[in-house]
Amino acid sequence: MTDTLYPDFDVLLVDDEPAWTGSLALSLESCAGINRIVPCNDSREVSAILERGTVGVVLLDLTMPHLSGEDLLELIAERHPEICTIVLSGLDQIETVVRCMQRGAFDYFVKTDEEDRIVAGVLRAVRMQELQRDHREMASRLSAPAVRHPEVFADIVTKDPAMHALFSYVEAVAHSPQPLLITGETGVGKELFARAAHRLSGCKGKLVTVNVAGLDDTVFADTLFGHLRGAFTGAEQARRGMVEEAAGGTLFLDEIGDLSIPSQVKLLRLLQEGEYFPLGADLPKRLKARVIVATHHDLASREAAGTFRRDLFYRLRTHHVQVPPLRERKGDLPLLLDHFLAQAAHELGKKKPTPPRELPQLLSVYNFPGNVRELKAMVYDAVSLHRDRVLSMDSFAKVLERREGGAVPPAASERQNPFAGFDELPTFSDAAAFLVQEALHRAKGNQTLAARLLGISQPALNKRLKQLRS
Fold it and tell me: Is 153 helix (H, G, I), strand (E, B) or coil?
C-alpha cells in the first residue's frame, strides 16, 4: 500500500542542494521503504522543524551556508538528544569524522560511499529509534497497572492478575514495528492475543492469519510471498502472497515452531531485510505489515537442539508474551464457565442453564491439558445434552474419569510414585487417611466431589470418615 508511512517518525534530510536531498529520498524509499521524509534545503529552518517533535532521525550535510552542519550537530545534541543524527559529507578526513562523533553523531558517511551503505546506516538509526521508543512506551505502560483499553481484551475472559499484566504489556508493545512472539500451550488463546495486538496497533489494514504447520518450503514461500505468472508449472496467473495481503495491517503466523530450516531462513530474511521475492520475481517487494508469530513449542529448547535457528529465535522474541495455562489460573473457572454457558445456549437456541454449585469445584481438581479450548468443548457438550433447568454434572464427570492421565501436567511424562522417597512407609490405614484428608481439602469439604476424586462411592467415603473419627 503506497499510502502506508514508514517509520512512525519523520526522517529529516538537511542539505543545501535540492538535487541531493531528492535523490537520497528516492533511494531511501525504493531500497528501504522509508517514505516519511522531510527535505530541508535551508539550515536556518532546521530548528523550527525539530521543535514540532516529530523528527526521529536527521541526515545532515556538513558544508552549508548560514548554519554549518557542525553547528547544527551541536544544537541537536544539546536540545534534542533523543534524535539520531547521521552526518553526510563530501569530506573524507579522519579528524572531521572523530570531531562529529564526539559531538554526538550516530554515524558518518561520505557522499561518495555506495548507496547501500548509506541506506543501511539510516535503517540502523531508524531501528535504534524504534527500540528506544518501545522501551519508553513499555516503561510508561508497565508503571501504570490499569489497562487502558479493556474493551480490546473482551474476548479473553479473566480476572487473573497475571493475565491483566499481559494485557498491559501488549498495550505497551502494540505500536512497535518489531515482531511479537506469543507462546503457550494449545488452547490457551494465543490467537485472541494476536487479535488484540492488531486492534491496538492502529494499523488500517486487516489481520491476515496463516497456519504454517505442515507447509513444506515451496508451499510456505508461495503462500507468504506469492508468485508471478509462469513461475512454475501450473502457475497460469500471478497470485499475491499473504505478506502483500497484510500490507498496512498485521501478518499472524501461527505454529511457527513447526517451520523447516529452509523456511526459517526465508522468514529471517523477511524480518531482517524487510523485503521478499515473489516466486519467479527478480525485484524484491517491501514488507509493509507488522508480524506476529505464535507457537505451542518451547522455542528455546528447539534452538538448543538445533531444530530452530538461533538468529531467528532472537529476532522473534524482541517482544514476547507467554500465555499461562488454565491450570495456573483456576480462579477464572467460574467466569469461563458462565461465559461459555451463555455462549453455548445462545448458539444452540436454548435457555442458559443454571450450573450446580459443585461444578466449579469439580472442575478445579482437573488440570485441563487442552486448556480453555477443552473447557469450552466440555460446556458445549453438556449444554447440547441439557434438558432440565439445572445443568447436569454427569457429562463433565465422565470426561474427567475418562481422562485420568489428563490430570497430570503435560510436563510430566508418567505418574510418579508418591511413596518413592519415604524412608519409612505408612501403613495402609494411615495412607488411606491421608488420601481422604487430601481429597476433602481439594474438594473444599464437598464429600460428593471428594468421593469422585478417590474413585469410590459416597457411602464408602462416609464409612472411611466414621473410621477416622472413631
Answer: helix
- Give the H or E element holding residue 293: strand 290-295
**Boundaries of domain holding 457:** 426-470
CATH code of the domain in which 404 resides:
1.10.8.60
Q: CB 270: neighbour CB atoms within 10 A? A: 18
Number of domains in the chain: 4
pLDDT along the chain (470 residues), means of 10: 74 94 92 92 94 94 89 91 91 86 91 88 91 73 71 95 92 89 96 96 92 92 92 86 94 95 94 90 89 95 93 91 95 95 93 88 88 94 85 83 52 56 78 83 77 79 80
Residue 214: how many other CB atoms lie within 10 Å: 9
Partners of 250 in beta bridges: 207, 290
Instruction: Determine the Cα–Cα distance for residues 304 and 312; give it in Å rounded to an integer.
Output: 13
For residues 191 and 55, state if they share a domain. Answer: no
pTM over 0.85: no
Sort residue 296 into left (φ over 0), alpha (ψ -120 to 50) or beta.
alpha
The answer to whether 140 touches 148, Cβ cutoff 8 Å, is: no
What lies within 8 Å, CB to CB, of 131 at 6+ separation is: 178
Give me the half-sphere count of Cα atoms (radius 13 Å) on the Cβ side of residue 118: 23
Tell me how far apart the alpha carbons of residues 345 and 337 are, in angstroms, rounded to a whole number.
Answer: 12
The helix, strand and coil proportions of the chain, stated in percent and rounded to the nearest 5, come to: 50, 15, 35
Here the cell at position 465 is 470418615
Reading the block at residue 248, the C-alpha cell is 498496512
In total, the chain counts a number of residues equal to 470
Instruction: Report the SS3 class of residue 165.
Output: helix
